[in-house]
Every structure is written in C-alpha cells, then in structure tokens.
Specification:
41% of the residues lie in helices and 16% in strands. It is of the alpha/beta class and 257 residues long. It has one domain: Alpha-Beta Barrel (TIM Barrel), CATH 3.20.20.140. The chain has an eight-stranded parallel beta sheet with strand order 1-2-3-4-5-6-7-8. It binds nickel (II) ion (NI). Nickel (II) ion is lined by residues 5, 7, 35, 91, 201.
Length: 257
C-alpha cells in the first residue's frame, strides 16, 4: 500500500506525527509521499522525507496559495526540488471552487510551476476543483506528457478522465471513493487499473467507516478495499501490487531507494 498524497506536516499531526508515521509502516504502508502546498510546507515535507527513509516529498505551491508565488519563492522551490527525496512538483493546479487566489494568478502560478517541472524533469501532482476544462487545456498546451503526473483526488467527469489519461496521466483516488453514490466510483471502474494511484489526502477526506475523524496514511487500506470491489476480477493483493507499481513507475521510487 502506498499513500501518494499525505499532508503529515499539517498542524493536525503536531501531537502525534511520529506515532502516525510508525503506525503507517506497521500497518503495511510501503511508502508515503508528503505533499507541499506552499514554501513552508514544502520545506517541512523535505525534512520529513529526510528523516524517514520510506517517506518522499513533493514541493510546490497550491492554487489556494498561488498569490504567494513570486520569483524568490519559485527559486526556493527549485532549490528544494533538487533534494534526492523530492519526487515531483506539486501540488499545483486550479481551484475555482474556493478561489482563494484570483483566477489569473492561479493560472500563472500553475504554468510557471509546470515550466519548472519540465526544467527539472519531474512529474507533477495536480489539484483541480471546479476547473477541469481550464486545467486540462493548460496541461495540453504545455505538453506535460513529457514529464507525466497525476490528477489527484480525481473529481471530474468521464470525458475529462479520458482526456487526462490520454496525456499519460494517472488518476488518484482517496476516501471520497468510499462515500455512498460517489461519482468517483464510476470513474475508477472505467479507468485502466495500471493508471490508478491510491492516496489519503490526510488529514482530510477520511474514508468510511471513519468519516468525520482525522484521516491518516494507514486508512489507504479502505481505498484499496473499495477498488477491489470495483474490480471484482482482481484480489485486494493484486490491486495493492499494481497500484504500488504504478506509484513506483510515476515517481521513480525504486531508483531512489
Ligand atoms: Ni492535498
């Protein structure tokens, strides 16, 4: 089991971070990728990755914080990205649901960070909310198939999923897949299993049966259980192995061990 999208640097984990990380390992989590959302959190992600051998990091500025991405911040992200435990640029993208940064600022920050990922030859972790068509056209325009990446917490429609897959991108699913009447279930069923990644987005989006509580990497198990229901011809263990291989391939985890 691999949690490809965790926020263990967030304050929700201040009281027991180390315990949660050891518990994840003991419960069968092979790797955790901790995701940066701004410069400070990117720094903390790299620190966590340096401290725990099975933890990796991404660095980048989330669309909510796009207004903080000036030239100095971009330069600092680039320096951080050169650490050997950094496996991607992210999370970057567009969020027109909460619009915490103006749209044109989000678009500019997204494009600048795609450019950085291409310069460093790193894949991208993409956050999209209420902006799939805009985000996909930016991805297409910037030829991101050269670097690859993942559409994290996929919440678009089937057509948008196909467009993402045609760029060679992975789709990643988390606890929302376990919620009743989740549209993500239909999308997952129609996605080739070798393009699916598992994640938690912890501390948020806790899967059933712990919905409402704080999420943590070990709960990626419930996402895998739901996937094995959606792919009845495959066992839990087969899906576990395939999704691990997918994460290894995209983030080149094996080459870094
Ligand atoms: Ni996230």
């Amino acid at each position: 089991m691999i949690d490809t999208h965790a926020h263990l640097d967030f304050p929700q984990f201040d009281p027991d971070r180390e315990k949660i990380i050891f518990e994840a390992k003991a419960s069968g989590i092979k790797n955790i990728i901790n995701i940066g959302v701004d410069l400070k959190s990117s720094r903390k992600s790299v620190e966590l990755a340096k401290k725990y051998d099975f933890v990796y990091a991404t660095v980048g500025v989330h669309p909510h914080d796009a207004k903080t991405l000036n030239d100095d911040v971009l330069k600092s992200i680039e320096v951080l990205a050169k650490n050997e435990k950094v496996v991607a640029i992210g999370e970057i993208g567009l969020d027109f649901y909460r619009n915490l940064s103006p749209k044109y600022v989000q678009i500019k920050a997204f494009e600048k960070q795609i450019e950085l990922a291409k310069k460093l030859n790193l894949p991208i972790v993409v956050h999209i909310r209420n902006a799939y068509d805009d985000a996909l056209s930016i991805l297409i325009k910037n030829n991101v198939q050269e670097i690859g990446g993942v559409l994290h917490c996929f919440s678009g429609n089937l057509e948008q999923a196909k467009e993402g897959l045609s760029l060679g991108f992975y789709l990643s699913f988390n606890g929302t897949l376990t919620y009743p009447k989740s549209r993500a279930q239909d999308i997952a069923k129609n996605t080739p299993i070798n393009f699916i990644l598992t994640e938690t987005d912890c501390p948020y989006l806790t899967p059933t049966p712990f919905r409402g509580k704080r999420n943590k990497p070990s709960y990626v198990r419930f996402v895998l259980e739901k996937l094995s229901e959606l792919f009845p011809d495959k066992s839990f263990e087969e899906i576990e192995k395939i999704t691990e291989e997918n994460a290894f391939k995209l983030f080149k985890l094996g080459n870094r061990l």
